[in-house]
Amino acid sequence: MNTPSFSRRNFLKVTASAAGGLMVGFSLPTALQAAMGEAGEINAWLTIDPDNIVSIVTPQTEMGQGAWTAIPMMIAEELDVPWENVRSVRADANRHVNNADLYTTTSTGGSTTVSRRHPYMMQAGASARERLRVAASKRWDVPLEKVVAKQGYLTAEHEEHGVMQGTYGEFAADAVAVTLEAEPAIKAYGDWWLLGKDVKRLDVSSKTNGTAVYPIDVTVEGMVYAAVQACPVPEGKLVSFDFEAVKGMPGVIAAVELTQVKDVPAFTDLRSAVAIVAESWFQAKNALAVMPIVWDFGRGATISFESQTAEALSLLAAPGTVLKDEDGNVGKGLDKGVNHDAVPDLIAASAKLVTGEVYSRPFEAHATMMPPCAVADVKADRVDVWTFTQDIGRSLNEVADQLGRDTKAVFLHQTQLGGGFGGGYNMDVHRQAAAISAAVGKPVKVIRSREEDIAQDSQRPPVWGTYKAALGEDGLPVALLTHFVGEEKMPAFAQRGVANMPYLIPNRRHENSFVQNHIPIGYHRAPGANSNGFIVEQMVDELALAGGWDPLEWRLKLTEGMEPWQRVLLAMKAKSGWTTDMGDGEGMGLAVVESHGTIAGCVATVSVTRRGQVFVDRLQYFINSGYVINPLNAREQAESSAVWELGHAMFGGLQIRDGRIVNTNFDSYPLMRMPDTPPEIEVNLEMSEDQWWGGLGEPTGPPTPPAVANAIFYATGTRVRSTPLSKAEL
Amino acid sequence: MAITLNINGQDHMIDADPQMPLLWAIREKAGLSGTKFGCGIAQCGACTVIVDGNAVRSCNTPLASAVGKAIRTIEGVSVNNDHPVQLAWQELTVPQCGYCQSGQIMSAVALLEKSPNPSDNEIDKAMAGNICRCGTYPRIRAAIHRAAEMSKT
Ligand code: FES
Ligand code: FES
Questions:
Q1: Complex ipTM
Q2: Residues 44-73 of B with CB under 8 A from A
């Protein structure tokens, strides 16, 4: 499904050639003004061909999560057009950026494409359908109420002429001119005919014969290749390099210095680096590997993961600070009538104190299957870019900024992404390609080696955490103090899923501290919740056992009255065969974590051999996202996030020495492979269907490691407080 | 240096260093972009092609060593995207981002040609060299069984 982007030029051409046909544009309330600015044209979310083929525009990127299918589904639902007639086409980033964010946003993250964006996307479809009805009622001269729009046909009973019928395509041109008095309301759950059904993603077949196009596959006439190397210690800067030494190597064309402007670059700034440009990427990479380069490593050179851990442990020995948000509120969830000031005294006076040990999770890389790549063709009057990004609009702006060009002259084309997982945000590969192309005056393809990718990725931050709890007579906590240490660049990650844990504990306080850190940080599938859930959900098991409670009953008790949580926990109880006593060497553990508005429970069954090797035999998931528009895709994403996070928990963990990441390829940074994948992964969708929407691209990740670690505890009696779990001594 | 490579039954004249990895010759010189780069050190399987019936990692196979051999890439699996492995992949919606899938499919095709009805163990062994960051392993496993079944009928 490698449809070209629906550029304005295309659009006008098609309009002109399809005499009497085509073009239905639809306005979103927010974008209407901007759209009207364009010579009276309404902005386009979809077009209808005379032959009734509907092309629906996708502003969000596709990285396997299904956006290029979900967006057309939401619009087709309202438009009421047969799914076979629907084509998915790419939004024009240039048009978006230069028309006051025409599509509201092109950002693709946080599992929001459906959960947050469905109201305005469905509105675009509903608006189109209503205009078609109005157009038919005018042409046929029948009252509007009599016109039915269904499955691509408009039908009405005419008083004299009997039944009138026409395709949407026949009325598309008329519909453009229609102005609605009021926008129609979008359909409620229960009125859906397409949403809620299993729909195969539209791009699957392009991914079984190698035709799907990723940035690495784009070629432009006259294109050359670049290999890049940024300072191996992030934040450090280039001092010098000796191009003379490699100039004569085969195929080598030029060396280009990439300049970092600030001492501490922002996440999407160009970082200090040097590139070799050559006729083939292999030649560029070989020359770069042997070119002498001198760096000033900067403040990071003395930092290691061990030094950060030592710092974290000393921070945990003293009180941390209670973080407040912009409005001065303590962490989300802690402000709901919870008395956080009383906690230290209650803990000090407690007759039944539980003191947790220190838990931790390390840095992890995205290691998207396609290493970051970008193609840039910088010309005097226009710039074309194809890049790894999860936000085409933002990347377009960044390219314009990098080159000092007007955004109107920059065209950033959507391609498939070889995975995203949050890595496509804090990224400078598009800036690199643009800067190099400008420097050499030729189109350039930048490919990061895997080593360069992992060394320069925006990593998931580490966390170290512990707790103290005072238990009451009934064994349930009266007061809980959590203290998590994060890193300084993205402090909010040390709060998510902890400050707002659901458990009803009358006195709670969450403290934070932060270690020094120079490693770039990014969003890593279910950020914050992914690492924090590992700590919180093992803590819960420790608290339950200390108070004489079954871990599942404890969670049920402390979420009483919270329907979405109860639904998940009760399903776990009813369907998982839950027990903490499976017999020697086997264990079942559970965890439940909310992220992106979705509550996901995991029950893990493990076996541990006498030699201490852990096998995850079965993973069962219970997910409540409120609604689900495509259960098939929901299952696929649930399996995907589960395997993703199990991989980090079992095998991952970046090592940092002398300020640099040392395990930068799959030999030293092992991840999940087929033989390690549990034979059984079961997904149960347990939807509340009650006016709230959660996202589904990430939430099964966070409960997986703590469920497995809890299961290991019940199998062996040993609690594993850090990952990779495969290195635990059992 | 001009080298002749036989890819998907067609001879390609390639002007490149004989030490250049086969992967880059296939992608940049022969212009077949279905075969992907993922690690460059034979660890991820994204670059898997079939050479004389065996699944090999083209990223660390020097061009010179493939001369005179039959190289098959994803583009040569079928003309109409309808090899049983491709059909099974579509039926079970295996690919997510899809980037690893050319390599996965080549490994699966090579496996099924040698062992038309593989056990889970054989599948695990044959597919262990192919990483999928999207975690599609459970579906790959099921799809290999499905392809085996389809090939029988
Ligand atoms: S690119 Fe060849 S195995 Fe990874
Ligand atoms: S489908 Fe994305 S890496 Fe396998």
A1: 0.98
A2: 44, 46, 73
